[in-house]
Write a structure and sequence with these properties.
Helix content: 25-40%
Shape: globular
CATH class of the largest domain: Alpha Beta
Number of strands: 12
Order of helices and strands: EHEHEHEHEEHHEHEHEEEHE
Strand content: 15-25%
CATH topology of the largest domain: Rossmann fold
Low-confidence stretches: 250-254
Structural class: alpha/beta
Largest sheet: 10 strands, mixed
Number of domains: 2
CATH architecture of the largest domain: 3-Layer(aba) Sandwich
Distance between the termini: 18 Å
CATH superfamily of the largest domain: HUPs
Oligomer: single chain
Amino acid sequence: MKDIVANLPVGRSSDVVTDFSVSVAATFGAHLSGVAFLYDPLLPPVDMGGIPVEVVETIRAHNEQAAKAAVGRFDEAVRGTALSADVRTRAASEAGAPNVFAQIARRYDLSIVAQADPAKPEPGDGVAVAALFESGRPVLIVPYIRRNGLRLDRLMVCWDGSRSAARAVGDAMPFIVRAKATEVVIVASEAAKSDEMPGADIAHHLARHGAKVELRRIVSTQSDVASTILSHAADSSADLLVMGGYGHSRLREFVLGGVTRGILGSMTLPTLLSP
């Protein structure tokens, strides 16, 4: 984990990414790149008539100021640290920015982005999903309510034996080996009927890497598996959630799996997702 990129919030009511990404980069001694989008003015359709040039320029100036503010917060956060860091501004439309960021993220070990607030649509809301399914790299999503940096006292891995879960475990290994404790959680629809514990193999694998591993099977008595996962994460005081992300592209739109959609909508802790 030596090269990290963060999507810096631009024009949003709060910035949960900048300080958090600095804490992640400091943990691994990684280079940190910040990307701030200079959004194109959002104009009405042509058939609705044009808008005065001065209005367009006012919007453009406002967007430029928002991008500069994001860059300034990043510069302030890394000032006085020993981090190797750089920051850039990229011009894009609000609709096109997610795909641009995903393309940038392909060249990094990890991307860090903010969770979208379902109650408050803001610029950059689509970046997390695009980074997950279009970058080919893991993405660490910071809840919009987050105020603290990275902690690794207790890490929680959701394991179902799938390809995405295996990819997530591999991508999260730098976090896992640094965590004071790692809990591998299997969500089941009913109690186990034998002494065999699913997930024992992956727990042994993590232990061979030096991780301090616990294995737990939890039963979901409701159809909302995401709520079961987040409830257990809260009960166990987990600091970081690791899981595979599920979804597919349909007519160039991202269609999320139910659990992934639920986690993205309700997460209460930083979550590392891999495609």
